[in-house]
Design goal:
about 160 residues, mainly alpha
Length: about 160
């Protein structure tokens, strides 16, 4: 599966996976009230690069992938401003958590789409991605992200956050 990809596609996939893994680490940090500065920088940069490199694939007209990329970049811009320009002060703390976690969710959403397109066993379950296995998977992941984001909002609140 991975060996048939062009070098650019491989690079895009690797950057995307780095964004997802580092984003999950950042989510864990939010859940325990830690900033995890290095992981946050890696998450934000790799997730921005994921969206940017996605625009270099050939496309004709506006596609769902382009729309997701644009939304992700807007959310990431807000998250970066909230985290680094506004230093998580006041409402910027929850704005950061929500925008960063929606950006992570969008990356995971695309990962699930790609898995159902590329992995033969999943493709059989949902060849057009309109079948129940695909919809249920996406719904469960969305629900999980909503719950985890709410918990992160509750736990990543105090002004006296532990630095890591």
């Amino acid at each position: 599966m991975f060996s048939n990809l062009s070098p650019f596609t491989k690079l895009h996939v690797v950057i995307s996976l780095i964004g997802i893994v580092s984003g999950l680490v950042v989510l864990f940090g939010l859940l325990v009230g830690r900033r995890l500065n290095g992981w946050t920088i890696l998450f934000l940069i790799s997730t921005v690069l994921t969206s940017v490199t996605g625009f270099f694939f050939p496309f004709h007209g506006v596609t769902p992938a382009i729309v997701v990329g644009i939304i992700s970049l807007v959310l990431l811009a807000v998250a970066i401003v909230a985290r680094y320009a506004r230093h998580l002060a006041g409402a910027w703390r929850w704005i950061y958590v929500v925008t960063a976690m929606i950006s992570l969710y969008l990356n995971v959403f695309v990962l699930i789409v790609q898995l159902f397109q590329k992995v033969p066993a999943l493709r059989v379950l949902a060849p057009t991605q309109s079948e129940p296995p695909f919809a249920v998977t996406q719904l469960v992941v969305l629900g999980l992200f909503v719950v985890l984001t709410i918990v992160a909002l509750i736990r990543f609140r105090g002004e006296q956050l532990r630095m890591a």
